[in-house]
Design brief:
CATH class of the largest domain in chain B: Alpha Beta
Shape of chain A: flat
Number of helices of chain B: 8
Radius of gyration of chain B: 24 Å
Number of helices of chain A: 13
Order of helices and strands of chain A: HHHHHHHHHHHHH
Structural class of chain B: alpha+beta
CATH superfamily of the largest domain in chain A: MetI-like
Largest sheet of chain B: 6 strands, mixed
CATH superfamily of the largest domain in chain B: P-loop containing nucleotide triphosphate hydrolases
Distance between the termini of chain B: 38 Å
Oligomer: heterodimer
Structural class of chain A: mainly alpha
Largest sheet of chain A: none
Strand content of chain A: under 5%
Bound molecules: adenosine-5'-diphosphate, magnesium ion
Number of domains of chain B: 2
Order of helices and strands of chain B: EEEHEEEHHHEHEHEEHHEEEEEEEEE
Radius of gyration of chain A: 24 Å
CATH topology of the largest domain in chain A: MetI-like fold
Number of strands of chain A: 0
Largest interface: A-B, 16 and 26 residues
Helix content of chain A: over 70%
């Protein structure tokens, strides 16, 4: 069947809107990329939109290995590995804890389930800044302040409300009879979780991985406060590079450093966008 | 041993009491059907027997042992759910063997059991398929198979046929009856479908609002309903009810239909001898009213409104003394009276039921 002319018109409008919005959001990124490929001399004399005359990766190399953050001049690379060391365990543990808790709350419903759920719901909306001072005191009491374990624990704790809500809602959409059948078949808490529930969880696991890994990677405040100088994440180092007060601002290095720091969440989004939408949709339909 | 005994069972969800002081004794090998409309607590009772919900009070005994707090797997039960509840990520074979593998049963024994059950239920051809690739009827067969491989003493069914279409439901119903006759195990079956209840049960427990209204063989439920609820719930079209007044008069029992004729019910089998009368309800099933009165001793007037043919049977809908009534008869009578026709219906005192109008209890 032929499309009516109104429909064609509407479609053209939609595409025009999408192209313009994409251009609008891509513009800053474009500026960052071209700036990072220029030398400082060129930056001083050309428009920020101009393409580089002789593109060079020097700024990228500097940003990665020799830009100065305060007294150290080792670039961002240290921060990258620190961030990986924080992100991987924090993502894994917060998801596992969230999944198990969500499973327990939706299927086993221990006494006080409603209360726990209510507390989590409220906790998810409290600005986390108010917890910082008490947490600093608590972590130093148990000797975890300024340590990798400490910052990982902080991310796991603050990830709990959203992770539990996410998994609980997803599991609430699975048929309860399935769980009952597995109990009649002799499954206990862990056996049912591992053999029945986890294999049904990939859609929501993908969503959880994306949410947590990008969120933890992008964190600045917790990293600054809790990680200690040996474990500073990339975001903190980036801030130190960009905001270093000595001498002229190296815009090309700053741009390269910023893109490098943003690259990980960007790649995660681009690689998993489709699954992300699918997982969210699955959760929405079932929840 | 697999008798089930439920003693003073209380089940509450928060402030809501679903079952209250419920008692039920089930003998080994019985096929008990819990019949009632949606939300009356049938599944709750079944889940309590299975150990899937917490009991607020009372006891559940299975085979003489107190199993009130036992895990579902330790109760010697197999269970079939309305939604089939097959494990979607594994094959039919994986579904059947799931529980056996968890119980660490030897491989050859698992294979032997799956072989026996899949032959019995004719699910051999799809052992390697996943549940998503099966039709509703096949899925429910697999679900029954998964319960059977457990070799349980008691099988619990929660509306296993209600997601199937009418034809398949009838087929599987017969298969279930055959299965019960073959293996002879105790079965407890929940349904809201009275045909399933009447055909499958050795005894039916009719439930309303968490209370068992009557527990009896299907014929008794049908012919001697214990109260107005049971009388109205079982049977289609439903039993005719005529309100009136019952009195004892010169050694005779007389029921006077409101604004209608008086009927001599002296030959009715009263549960207790009639002492004084009162407001009452006379119930009679549509098929116990006869268009051709013959020498039947009791008579009722009837005004036709609509006639309905249902294949083998036909039903006339109308009124008796201003109260709604229906008559059912074989279609071979070729009767199609016009609207407004007056007729006289005959019936026997043995076919009727009398209830106290206030309490609804059978008299
Ligand atoms: N987990 C629960 N929490 C609260 N109320 C429940 C729960 N399960 C069942 N009920 C209530 O108990 C009553 C009986 O439910 P159920 O046994 O499922 O009825 P049936 O199987 O006869 O349709 C219903 O009113 C239902 O709302
Ligand atoms: Mg039910």
């Amino acid at each position: 069947m032929r499309m009516s002319s109104e429909k064609t018109l509407a479609r053209t409008g939609v595409y025009a809107f999408l192209v313009i919005s994409a251009a609008f959001f891509l513009m800053p990124f474009y500026v960052m990329v071209v700036t990072s490929l220029k030398t400082m001399d060129e930056i001083r004399v050309t428009s920020i939109f101009a393409l580089p005359d002789t593109p060079t990766l020097q700024a990228w190399v500097t940003a990665w290995q020799s830009a100065c953050t305060g007294l150290n001049c080792n670039g961002l690379s240290v921060g990258f590995f620190n961030s990986v060391m924080i992100m991987v365990p924090a993502t894994v543990f917060s998801i596992l804890l969230g999944a198990v808790t969500g499973y327990a709350l939706s299927f086993w419903r221990p006494k006080g389930t409603g209360l726990i759920f209510g507390i989590l719901l409220v906790a998810a909306f409290i600005p986390y800044q108010v917890f910082i001072y008490p947490l600093v005191r608590m972590l130093s009491q148990v000797g975890l302040y300024n340590s990798l374990a400490g910052i990982v624990a902080i991310h796991v704790i603050f990830g709990m409300p959203i992770m539990v809500l996410l998994f609980r809602n997803y599991y609430a959409g699975l048929p309860r009879d399935l769980f009952s059948a597995a109990r009649v078949d002799g499954g206990g808490f862990w056996v049912i979780f591992i053999r029945l529930i986890l294999p049904l969880s990939p859609p929501i696991l993908i969503v959880a991985v994306i949410l947590q890994s990008t969120h933890i990677w992008n964190d600045f405040l917790f990293g600054l406060v809790f990680a200690g100088s040996d474990n500073q994440p990339m975001t903190v180092l980036l801030n130190n590079i960009v905001n270093s007060t000595q001498g002229e601002k190296a815009y090309n290095v700053n741009m390269a450093a910023t893109i490098l720091t943003a690259a990980v969440p960007l790649i995660i989004y681009l690689a998993s966008g489709r699954w992300f939408v699918r997982g969210i949709a699955a959760g929405a339909v079932k929840g | 041993m697999a008798e089930v005994s439920i003693e003073n069972l209380d089940i509450r969800f928060g402030a809501v009491s679903v079952l209250n002081d419920l008692n039920l004794q089930i003998a080994e090998g019985e096929f008990i059907v819990l019949l009632g409309s949606s939300g009356c607590g049938k599944s709750t009772l079944l889940n309590a027997i299975a150990g899937l919900i917490d009991v607020s009070g009372g006891k559940v005994r299975i085979g003489g042992e107190d199993k009130t707090d036992a895990e579902p797997k330790d109760r010697g039960i197999g269970m079939v759910f309305q939604s089939y509840a097959l494990y979607p990520q594994t094959t039919v074979e994986g579904n059947l063997s799931f529980g056996l593998r968890m119980a660490k049963m030897p491989k050859d024994e698992i294979a032997r059991r799956i072989d026996r059950v899949s032959k019995m239920l004719q699910i051999e051809p799809y052992l390697k398929r996943r549940p998503a690739a099966l039709s509703g009827g096949q899925r429910q067969r697999v679900a029954i198979g998964r319960a059977l491989v457990r070799d349980a003493d008691i099988y619990l069914f929660d509306e296993p046929l209600s997601n199937l279409d009418a034809k398949l439901r009838a087929e599987l119903r017969v298969e279930l009856k055959e299965l019960h006759q073959t293996i002879g195990k105790t079965m407890i079956y929940v349904t809201h479908d009275q045909v399933e209840a009447m055909t499958l049960a050795t005894r039916i427990a009719v439930m309303q609002n968490g209370v068992i209204q009557q527990l009896a063989a299907p014929e008794d439920i049908y012919e001697r309903p214990a109260n107005l609820f049971v009388a109205g719930f079982v049977g289609s079209p439903g039993m005719n009810f005529f309100s009136g007044h019952l009195r004892s008069e010169a050694g005779k029992a007389v029921f006077a239909i409101n604004d209608g004729p008086e009927i001599d019910v002296s030959d009715y089998a009263f549960d207790a001898p009639l002492e004084q009368g009162g407001e009452a309800v006379l119930g009679i099933r549509p098929e116990h009213l006869f268009v051709d009165a013959g020498d039947l001793p009791l008579r009722l007037p009837f005004t036709v409104k609509v006639s309905e043919s249902m294949g083998a049977d036909s039903v006339l809908w109308g009124t008796t003394a201003g109260q709604k009534a229906s008559v059912r008869f074989g279609s071979d009578l070729k009767l199609n009276p016009p609207r407004g026709s007056e007729m006289e219906l005959g019936f026997s005192p043995r076919a009727l039921s009398l209830f106290d109008a206030e309490s609804g209890v059978r008299l």
